[in-house]
Design brief:
Elements (H helix, E strand, L loop, with lengths): L24 H14 L7 H14 L6 H14 L2 H13 L2 E3 L2 E3 L20 H15 L7 H16 L12
Antiparallel strand pairs: 1-2
GO cellular component, one term: extracellular space
Protein name: PZP protein
InterPro entries: A2M/Complement_sys (IPR050473), Alpha-macroglobulin_TED (IPR011626), Terpenoid_cyclase/PrenylTrfase (IPR008930)
Length: 174
């Protein structure tokens, strides 16, 4: 049976440059779950509950990409799952790049940053996004974030602000 015309290609990205770090079902499911929780739908809603169950299963995989971990950490922060949030943030902490008094995350196997003459290096949009998701996960905490989380968050915010272009925008639309 053929899909209705309106649904053809629903699982395809029409503009790959807008895809960001989403590259598999887990990251896409985390992204959608985050959107549902931000609506806000309660964690008791059947769709959210089922999504979180799937994400918990995925979070237990050791080979998750750093972008996926960042999304999962924020999803569990929104859901109020402090244990999963903390475990993912602890894992992300081990992969953090510390440079010039700031903290950020980058894709594994990426070439080191280089500043060109008269032009400052700007990270790819996926790295700005994943670093921003880690920041959101750190600041989304019940009760309020602890002092050490706020100190860490300020180092992340410093890096994110350094990625702004001269007009105040970012390479990412996220």
């Amino acid at each position: 049976r053929e899909k209705p015309v309106a649904l053809r290609g629903i699982n395809k990205y029409f503009c790959v440059s807008l895809q960001g770090g989403v590259n598999d079902e887990v990251t896409l499911a985390a992204y959608i779950t985050i959107a549902l929780l931000e609506v806000p739908l309660p964690v008791t809603h059947s769709v959210v509950r089922n999504a979180l169950f799937c994400l918990e299963t995925a979070a237990n995989q050791k080979e998750n990409h750093v972008y996926t971990k960042a999304l999962l950490a924020y999803a569990f922060a929104l859901a109020g799952n402090r244990d999963k949030r903390k475990a993912l943030l602890d894992s992300l902490e081990k992969e953090a790049v510390r440079k010039d008094g700031s903290v950020h995350w980058q894709r594994p196997g990426k070439e080191p940053e280089t500043d060109l003459p008269f032009r400052r290096y700007r990270a790819p949009s996926a790295e700005v996004e994943m670093t921003a998701y880690v920041l959101l996960a750190q600041l989304t905490s019940q009760p309020a974030p602890a002092q050490e989380e706020l100190a860490s968050a300020s180092l992340i915010a410093k890096w994110i602000s350094s990625q702004q272009n001269p007009n105040g925008g970012f390479s990412s639309t996220q």
